[in-house]
Amino acid sequence: MGTVLFLGAGLVLNDGYKKFLFRQETVLTIGVFSDSYWEVQNGYSYRILEDAIALFEKEHEGVKVEYVSGVLKENYPEWLAEQMILGRGPDLFFIFGEHFNDLAEIGALKDLSKLAERDEDFVQARFYSSALNCGKYGERQYALPYECAPKLMFVNKTILTREGIALPKEDWTWEDFYEICKAVTKDTDGNGTPDQFGVVGYTWQDAFHSNGVQLFDRKGTECRLTDEGAKEAILFMEKLDGLYDGYHVTSRNFDLGNVVFQPMLFSEYRAYKPYPLSIKKYSGFEWECIPMPSGRRGANIAELDTLLLAMNDNTSQTEYAWEFMKLLSGDERIQSEIFTYSEGVSVIRDVTEADKTLQLLIDSSGDDNGLNLSVLSSAVENAVVTPKFRNSKEAVAEVDKAVRDIMEGSSNISMEQIIWNREINNFLKNRLER
Amino acid sequence: MEENRTPNIIYTWMLNLNFLIILYIAGIMTAGTLGYVHENSALVFMHQVSSAAMAPWKIPTAALLLYGSLVLFLCVQTENNSFSYVKTSVEIGVSLILGYLLNFSYSGMLLLILADVIRRTGRIKRRYAAVGMICGMYLLMDYDLLSGIFHITPLETYLLYYRGDIRAILLGVKNVLFSLNILFFIIYTVQLMRTQMNEKERILSLNDKLNQANEELQLANRQMEEYARESIKNAEAQERNRLAREIHDTLGHSLTGIITGLDACITLIDIAPEAVREQLKVIADVARNGMTDVRRSVKALRPDALERMELEKALLEMMEETRKASHVEIEYCCTAELGHYNKDEEEIIYRIVQESITNAIRHGRAGKIMIAISMEYNVMNIWVKDNGVGCAHIEKGFGLHHMEERLAMLHGSLNYYVDNGFILEASIPIRWGE
């Protein structure tokens, strides 16, 4: 009798009771949001997913794929959390890069490593390794990338032409960057305050990434703020800041055409470049995107923003969910649609580098200059993927506080680095003890 | 089991209290989770939890089913040692799953198992291992300790949903319930100890009584032995008196007559030789009568069995009676013809066998006796061996002495020694109907 109750509890816990109570047809549920991840209303919200579902249902007869429509991107994380908490989490769902850590940490996501190893159709090499790494927590793969966007440097070509400066090469350095910024920062209307600037939105993180600084170790137990590379990056940031003499430059200045450089995601380029959307925003100048400048110890690289696909750890449809994931993230038919219906970059190298893609980009942007697919591809391939651990967002916020403090302070940088490093390490330790 | 009533009642209370506590905690967890969802702060909750949540209704359902199975397992009564180990292990396993379900915020159900083990304490060997195991589990099943190793969501996270004052009340009730459970356990243990102490006292007093009775019995035994010895002596004395009387009455009478007659003959022999001849005839008659009297006396001493039946039959009957009376195994082997002996020879054969069996049982405490009777030329050999304790120094008692005497009368010999029991050999020359 005791055993019967015990087995009953087991059935409740692993959803086995459903087999007794309902005769289920195989339904695969997908968690998805209605608008674009890249904050662009393009009217194609479910287009790629619908195409994938059509393909999938044709290939797997008897399996129905369902999703709840109408959940906005801003409400999506809350909606997903509610569904998960209520035990109704979809079998498969999209997740934002910033929420991936927490979900992986609490064990809400299925470990895909075994599935990937077992499946011969799944070739990791077809993916951009950086994009794949975005879905890794520890050494395990908990999510597959769906689409991504590298950070690139946007250049106001109009100012450069006016100042007689050539467009920087793809392998340009901090020195080139600084020289151009220095050259263009001036007071053009003669009212006593500078109104033309070098750069806006270039953060210490961009500087760290391009100078080869790995801020945390893989497990997030140690901070490396005391690295020489970090010191160089901070000094460089101070130097750049020194150009504006306390004047606060905003992205509004860039929109108005008064700033030469602004780092942006490639998706923003895709969103605002094409006519007629570009009319509203950057209409007064010609612009182009190039890789980020490299520091002395690093390369022309930056971070990657990725939209991921993950499987619910409690799903009862592991095999179908995995097949559908593969279809969404690894099938060239679906992935090539990203360039048509979304603003991101495909995570499959062959798709991104295809001639068709270039043609598509040129067609949609209305001009053929500047955009080099190999630049884009290598920016994705070489993008920095920061180690993910629980509360890494908070840890980065701590470092942000530290860098600001060091830059504002007047004392010895190395000393401040050491002090702050100790403090952040304490923070990391307490986080582990929590 | 009358004396176990108080602990049993407390145990029932504990079972009910644990039911209440588990329901309470599961209720808080479920209500808290639903509350978070209701307030649209599922994401906040998701960030606070350390493990993937399950559907809220599942927690109380599974918890109650598990608790039910635990109670039923606890109700199983077993005397079997290894089975009780399996039982305890299963119970601990169920409690661990239950603990896991409640995020290790409650481990009081282990006290139930401990109480159950202690209750069975008298009948279970090596119970310390089980008690130690449960105590260890109880100590280790602590949220603060386990949260360092596993990812567990503390109950406080669920409680955080509630307003401060309500949270305080909920926590207070929880603590009261927890303390109540421990209090019950302590009272239970004390009651059980009292019951067991009473039991021990009762056993001790019973033991005393038993010892006393034993001593009395031993005394009685000794008295009986003394009485037996006295009886034998009495019997001997009576027998001697009877013999003396017989000798006096028969032999004495005849011899007196013979002596008187012979004296007369001595006087008469020269005067009247004819009269002497007559006299001598009379004397011979007296002597003959005397002889008849002696024979009659001897006949009166013969064993009753021999009076009634043949020697062989008498022996077999005697052995059978002994077997029946004292359950001793007797092996009997006779190669000699047992008929046509003189009465005194038959008697001594019977007496020797009887006496040997008696000795073997009485002094040797033997369980098995072997008897062999054989004939070699004109000598009958009787060989008796037992598997008794034998004795280091053979003390010749009345029995052996008597045997020797009787044998000597028939020119026979007696031999006895100890070799894995007592061995007796007797040889009797047979006169063949003289």
Overall description:
The complex is a heterodimer of chains A (434) and B (434). By secondary structure, chain A is α/β, with parallel strands linked by helices. In chain A, 46% of the residues lie in helices and 13% in strands. Among the domains of chain A are: 18-146 and 305-377, D-Maltodextrin-Binding Protein, domain 2 (3-Layer(aba) Sandwich), CATH 3.40.190.10; 201-248 and 391-434, no CATH class. Chain A is built from 22 helices and 11 strands. Chain A is globular. Chain A starts with a helix and ends with a helix. The model of chain A is unreliable at 275-280 (pLDDT under 50). Chain B has helices spanning 5-38, 42-48, 58-75, 81-101, 109-119, 127-140, 143-146, 155-159, 164-268, 273-301, 304-308, 311-326, 343-362, 398-409, and strands at 329-334, 368-376, 379-386, 413-418, 422-429. Chain B is α+β, with helices and mostly antiparallel strands. In chain B, helix 12 (311-326) runs parallel beside helix 13. The model of chain B has no long low-confidence stretch (mean pLDDT 83). Chain B has 14 helices and 5 strands. A 5-stranded mixed sheet of chain B has the order 1-2-3-5-4, with helices on one face. Chain B has 3 domains: 2-161, no CATH class; 228-301; 304-429, Histidine kinase-like ATPase, C-terminal domain (Heat Shock Protein 90). At the A-B interface, helix 1, helix 4 and helix 5 of A face helix 1, helix 2, helix 3 and helix 4 of B.
